[in-house]
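Re: export button greyed out
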Amino acid sequence: MRIGSAKESYIADEALFATRTQWVWFALLLASLVLFPFVSNLYWLYLACLVSINVISATGLNILTGFTGQVSLGHAAFMGVGAYTVAWLDNNAQTPFYLNLLAAAGVTTAVGLVAGLPSLRVKGLYLAIATIAASFILQFVFINWESVTRGTRGINIEPPEIMGIVLDNPDTFYWMVVPIMVVMVLLAANLFRTRVGRAFIAIRDRDISASVLGISLPAYKLMSFAIASFYAGIAGGLYAYFMGSINPESFPLLMSIFFLAAIIVGGMGTILGGILGAIFMTLTPEVLRYGVDLASPFIDEPGAVLSPVRTIVFGALIVGFLLFEPHGLAEIWRRIRRFFHLWPFRT
Amino acid sequence: MDWLFFIEVSLAGIGAGSLYALTAIAFVLIYKATRVINLAIGEMLMVGAYLFFALGAGWSLSWWLAIPMALVGGGLLGMLLERGVIRPMLGENPISVFMVTIGLGSILVGTVELIWTSAPRSLPGFMPDEAIFIGEAFIAPNTFWGFVIAAVVIALFLLLFRFWRGGVALRATASDQGAAWAMGINVPAVYSLAWGLAGMIAAGSGILLGAMSGVSPEMAMFGLTVLVVVIVGGLDSVFGALLAGLLIGWMESVVGVYLGGEYEHLVTFILLMLVLLVRPWGLFGSHEIERL
Amino acid sequence: MSESILGISNIEVVYGHTVQVLRGLSLEVPRGGIVALLGSNGAGKSTTLKAVSNLLSLENGELSAGRIEFDGKPTAGTAPHQLVRAGLCHVMEGRRVFEDLSVEENLVAATYARTGREQATRKDFNLVYEYFPRLHERRRALAGYLSGGEQQMLAIGRALLARPKLMLLDEPSLGLSPVLVEDIFSIIARINREQGVAMLLVEQNANVALALADYGYIMESGRVVIDGSPEKLLGDDDVREFYLGMAGAGGEMKSYREVKHYKRRKRWLS
Amino acid sequence: MKGKQILSAIAAVLALLLAAAMPALAEEKNDIVIGGSMPLTGPFAFAGIQFNRGLRDYMEWLNEQGGIEGRKVRYVAEDTGYEPDQSVAVFRRITSRENVSFYFGDSTAFHQTINRELDRRDIMMTGASFASELNDTERYPLQFMHGPDYSEQVAILLRHIAEEDPGARVAFIYSDTEFGRDPISAGRETAEELGLEVAARIVTPPGAADISSAALELRRARPDYAIFHGYILAPIPDFIRRARQMGMETRFMGTYYSMDQSIIDEMGEAADGFMGVMPYRYFYEEDAGESELMRAIHERNDEYQTIYYIQAWVAGSMMAQIARETLARGEPLKGSRMRASMEGLDEVDTGGVIGVPVRFRGNSLPVGRIYRADVEAGRMVPVSDWIDLD
Amino acid sequence: MSVLELEGISLGFGGVQALSGVDLAVEEGTITAVIGPNGAGKTSLFNVISGFYRPQQGRVLLEGRNLTRLRPPRRASLGLGRTFQNIALFRGMTVLDNVKLGAHVRMRTGVFSAMWYLGAARREEARVREEIEREVFDFLEIDHIRRHPVAALPYGLQKRVELARALAMRPKILMLDEPVAGMNREEKEDMARFILDVKEEWGITVLMVEHDMGMVMDISDRVHVLNFGQVIASGEPAVVQKNPGVIQAYLGSGDVNSLRERLMGESA
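Workaround output, generated via the alternate export path:
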């Protein structure tokens, strides 16, 4: 606990960053985000963009699964809806990209609301399985609604343009996606300072006592689905712009599992967890690649073990974190922070 | 309407459905004993098939030796998973356990790819190759013998479940773990037994499935349809698993022929959605009243 | 060979690392005797039994202090099923029969209690049916379809099949009509007398429990507050107070209305 | 608490590795770099490993021959696991530290996704995908195929059928994937043009386990020919075996990726008579000596080499030719310039692996020959001349 | 005046009749207790009032308004607050957030203003926070733990937080399901004092289920006794204590000595 942070009003006490130190850290973080492009190469910028998109998506899933306790295995398919919305608008309407992105979020929210309907009837594992079904049905639509999605042939998207600057490369795209990511994360963080976010957590922790407190389970569950889908829609739209081409196989079930794994590893039910998890899971393959390179003198055909090893590590991370650190990286981070807070007065 | 054709298609579907039913029983067994929704069932099935591949094709053992060994291997795998990963998780939030099984599935797939690569392989043949006709209706020998073997295994299993003392222990544990423990049943051992048996059954289905269409890491996807089967049948109902397995096999077959193969999975998942909305506990599952 | 089959000394039980249910409870059950453990709901009676049979782990409970000895040996670290096989049988509250199994299969499941000692034989089944002829009539029926009384008989019959040295009976009268309660308790008395099985009987129904028992304990808030022979307990006014909240008998307790009420006026943010 | 410590330690190590992974590679300026996203693992690894070996061996051979206009060629590739997002990541990584002129891709999705980036970076690309979608010079100006696209492969098959057996009944059996669906609608049109009857179109779900009902459907249609597309191996053997059991006399055909020698090895007896389209010579072909490239391959390899290995040599040879042509014009190795020189080619240099002179039509080389599996001889034998759709 | 009335409530679960024809009225400004042996149907009764179980017969009236068809959240917003037998706090939250949730029904912030956290949302949060600090935390003396995660608190404090959460709803009637179960004497005294104060200072009607007879008889104004799903006695504590039906329900019937003879004799 920090000493000497007396507040004079409840508003101040309710602030997102309660201490000056926190503000300093936040400013430092923002500054490093601004500086990053100037010290890194295109490949790292590419990863940064990908991480940002994944952070948005994982944060959305975290709202639904981590905070509200509604497990969804359809998150990638929702991203697909957003991506296809952007792709369709890009190919058929000359609307600016931010409108397309908003439309993507809107359409995905609507689809998410429908896909969330089973949550009114079933919960827990059954709901997870219902979302698998939703994901397959959406996949079917992507493949077979050829007039909109061009079916399995996939669909190309022109890069977005802001004030004449074409964002067709990570070094330009970065400046769009990172601010959006920061805003989306702050919005999510805000949500959990208010009654809406608290109601979500209440439903996760104990739905029965939530309803005794006057929280309408159907309304809030659907709301959570809608918000998660909104995030997925934005992330999917950005993904479409970033990749420049999408097809039905761009959003497989495995990708939904990826996001679930990201929030498990990062820490379910904390905003920081979604961020850390998305970063960690996106970058782990890179690290593994490096590790395999290091190991290459000792094994033949190191290239050929990378992908299985990645699959194994992916699974092992899920299992390991659930077994040993169910609160994820966020908890590890907190422990580290607490250690340094108390340092050198160790307890 | 061409009735003979319809009958042939239906028989083929029921044949395929028998494999769903068999795997679904493994799933239900695990669920009943440990209340774990095991999403890694498809991967366990795949590992079983690869074990048979390794023994039968790699070590060139004859099939009557390789199959039992692969089954035992599958059983050991099941027990290993239970003891190593599932047991420490028992009592945790069921969703965490569920996600652990997703992680396990990933580990199994990666391991198989590491050892055998992901190239599709053919299994050594062990089923008779002559065409079977029921009346005029043709049944592929693979389908027919697959069905017969699945039926025999299922029957054997049901008999065990019913009359073997261990079967009673299993059912007692499924019915009430606390009371079973208080009655002197070694409940942790029953957990291992259930996972071991389920691993064996899954390996068996894997071998049958592999005999029909070869083995590859992709065959783990079979587990997803099995998941649909058990939800439709009712997670805790052996009878439901059997019936839903045959039903979904039949339905996929008929839909595939009359609507086109692209609709097979769609229809399966639409059925799943309908069941979840109308009767979430499945056609034959027990509906537990939520006591507060 | 010690005189008591079960000795509990100073045990404490905590659920979920927060809720302390037992706070230093001690009691003894002599070989072949019947001991009644009475008290209001929530006093910790069922928890005591679960602590004895090591079933606490099922409910995230933990024996944090104290010692339990069964048949001269400490029970700590022994799995529940091993305790059963050593002759300690727990008939849980709410009967807990295996509803999907037939009556006979319920008994078969109970034969596991003897694994490692001797096999259960037809004779053992017949013994159960002899005490509970009603079960014999319904031996093919699913246990889930039995009436409450029949289920209670089955639960006790199952335990009997285990040939225990000590039975823990948790509220056998729960939800049964007075006539049935008398039926069942008289069978319990017979089993005790004829088979020499010691009983630790948890009951709310104090009269019937004390009519049967050689000795009684009354619990409140996780510890024993009064113990003694049935005659002593029945004659004690305190017992009534515990059950019906009648003030005045003990005298030393203040009324809740008179408890002082401190209020801190300070308020700060942390 | 031990697990927690281990996890923390793992996290710390990973973080360290991550920091250390920042690329620090000096590059040899003058080399011509060919990058590759290679499916060394995953479901396409059987071909990917061969592509990788083939390209590596070809580049080695080429450098032994003096490289391209005296410049050395360097081949840089990494595994993708046949996942498009990994392919993109590999592309990004390689191009961020190398000045890449050519690139070899591994999947249609990757070819599509990376297209914009190719244009931006002016890199020329070829790869494993023969998707008809890519055969569009407007959309994919910097991509080319070193063989016929899937529609053209089917067209070559159909043309062969129409010649052998005019008016025959043909069935298409394909998987419900991007790969499988690719040539079907074009194939129907071609069949109609050639006077063939399309007796059935049978779709199998991706990763399908059981094809019993599909086989029954096939029997009901009783086609003279059935063309598989979108499969590597399974479920082709199963279909053929069932058809034999049901007493059908349908002749079965496949497209490029189901035509390697391995199909005979894997299928055994059932493979006998299986036909398919193949743009390249097989390793063991007798007239191999006519081809310079085949001679080089034989010099390096005693054992059978897969068609994918040979395919990689062809791809390499074509890249070298385009580069040579461009450099000869005194222009830089930029995609747009190379495109121009590619279009100017009268004849594509396949090192004689394709037995007739070929030219680009759009982005592809619409040439192939029909081969038939001869189980007794244990190899594929040609049953037609080279068919050039152009 | 009766705040809450139950008329002829019957509830069964597949053959087991949990409640049969229960009539019960709770007078405004009283502490009313429902007692009865284990399994008598007390918690079922609470769940019928909260709206988790829908009775097969009968009506639930709050201030004359029929609640029978309303879902739990709606009932809560009409002024029905409750705590649970096994603490039902939100374990993942701090004490403060738990209590704030109690005020949920009195707040209006929607998703959009919540996410931007501007103007109205910010003001509302601050206002509710202030109310809670002044009224609830102060009253229940839990201000020092407001930032603690509830899962780590001792049992007695958790119970108090649950009460705080219910009070933050400002309910018309507060239902307490075994408020002192598992507490030691000291904790019970505190809780009893709080319950009395809730009635006296806040003017909230209290309906509780409790097994601790000492406390029930001491602080209740009125007691209803349930057995086998039926009300067997109602009235002031002193009267109910002497009711032979109640004594029999709790202690069993008849004279112990003759009972013993019957039990032993039958088999002799």
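Strands of chain E lie at 2-13, 16-27, 31-35, 57-62, 65-66, 80-82, 173-177, 205-209, 222-227, 230-235. The button fix ships in the next patch.
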